[in-house]
Amino acid sequence: MSILSLDGKQMMLDGKPIRLIAGAIHYFRVVPEYWEDRLRKLKACGFNTVETYVPWNFHEPKEGQFQFEGMADLEGFIRTAGELGLYVIVRPSPYICAEWEFGGLPAWLLADPGMRLRCYNKPFMDKIDAYYDELIPRIAPLQSTKGGPVIAVQIENEYGSYGNDIKYLTYLKDALLERGIDVPLFTSDGPTDFMLQGGMVPGVWATANFGSRSEEAFAKLQEYQPDQPLMCMEYWNGWFDHWGEEHHTRDAADVAQVLDDMLAAGASVNFYMFHGGTNFGFYSGANHGGKYEPTITSYDYDVPVGESGDITEKFHAVREVIARYEDIGELELPPAIPKKSYGTVAMTAYASLNDSAEGLATVVQSTCPEPMELVGQNYGFIRYTTKLSGPRESSKLNIQEVRDRAMVFVDGEYKGVIERWNPDSEVEFAVPAEGVTVSVLVENMGRVNYGPLLKDPKGVTEGIRFGQQFLYDWAIESLPLDDLASLSFQPIGQSQVQANQPAFFKGEFQVDEPADTFLNVKGWTKGVAYINGFNLGRYWEAGPQETLYIPGPLLKQGVNELILFELHGSAKHEVALQDYPVLDRSSAE
After folding, report:
1. Which of 206, 265, 369, 503 has its CA 20 to 30 A from that of 518?
2. Alpha carbon of residue 479 to chain centroid
3. Catalytic residue among 51, 60, 101, 234
């Protein structure tokens, strides 16, 4: 049994001084078969602790239905870390940010349009209580006070960046204590006055999050908390990418220098991230800093261990600094995980969305084009269809408000796209005397995960107008695309495949020995990729990411199935499976 205590400015473990050198690895972004590999690399770099968030939406995807198996096996991840001799910091707060869909909050919360988030609102607290009743009893027995590796637990995440409801924070603190959490609790906030004032809880250890200027950051933290150990709970040694923007990198020498400064000051540190992993499925989030900015599928983050487990220059630079302060022994790395190129895969079969929708969609009739959450849908796509009488002169189709990207069809003909972030995207058409059928296919590209615009319902949030007139009487098709078993494929014929008509393309390839590989979708436009039924995530020619990571455990010996749900079509009808990633399209050209 190892007990962490805070003795003034000194952190103690079993009565002996300790410095926590931690790194973030999110179990929910890594296939379970690779948890041990990533954790061994963390330890090999000189770290003594792993930190992880816990995403509520991953564990309670539908209200009252909990999952803690496979990639959601939080307890298995914690135990694996403990078996390797690592301590664990757990951050199970309802909200995690993490560039994760809705900051980890479950989308079904928005089925109540009046739901108030991240404050003392009884309907919200009731949902948290039900979740914590299931979650916290799984963590409590794994605490160091019970012989496990968990040494600290977070109350809420960067709350001062969002609000100042101390009653809410106190409720969360008590909720953890009442369910058996007895290791030190903490908060983490940016090192500014308003963030610390809003996020700190009386009597609770406060930590700070930043990526540089550590002396200044710690000085501000000490203004508010002069008598506690210093810890940077999120040292941003890399950064994430948005679609359509440049790939972020940070110089390894700069990262090492800031770490050196913190260790020289006697502080503890948690690398955010140590290994980023992947936003598989529809779990990538978005930011909204003046405009909507969706996050890419890769969460490589340019950190010490890359998305597919590669040791980077940053790993060695960081290890060298740690070795100046701690006895970390010789470098011992696990065997490298093999990567393989499986060559070109021909996409030989085809199924249009229109022909497949009956088996994929749940349909409701509605006066208004309701958002996803009000028809019981969390992720994926949603299609709205109505009849429009004529004749009418040419007018714009106005969506109030599109969340997030809509393809517009008139009598089945593609008319254009309306994008939430692009004020110049618009669709205009005239209506003949006989009238037309209007269909709007909306893609949910990830709910906002940070900031004041966190409440982010998807689909059409208010209404659709033709000119100034609101249109009513809609058929709404929910297309979560979480199960493609109903698809009926036909061999590709050139006459079948039409540009800008959403469709599923299928190819098969043979695997003798499963290994990591990377799906190169260059030449395709935008869509979602599935390997053997597993959703790998979104791809988009907007970049910067050009390949999707396929971990070897997702492949099987023999025949493997690849499906692309492509929104705009491709003349290629083939993809490549190569042995290296392309996360910065501009550097590959």
Report:
1. 503
2. 20
3. 234
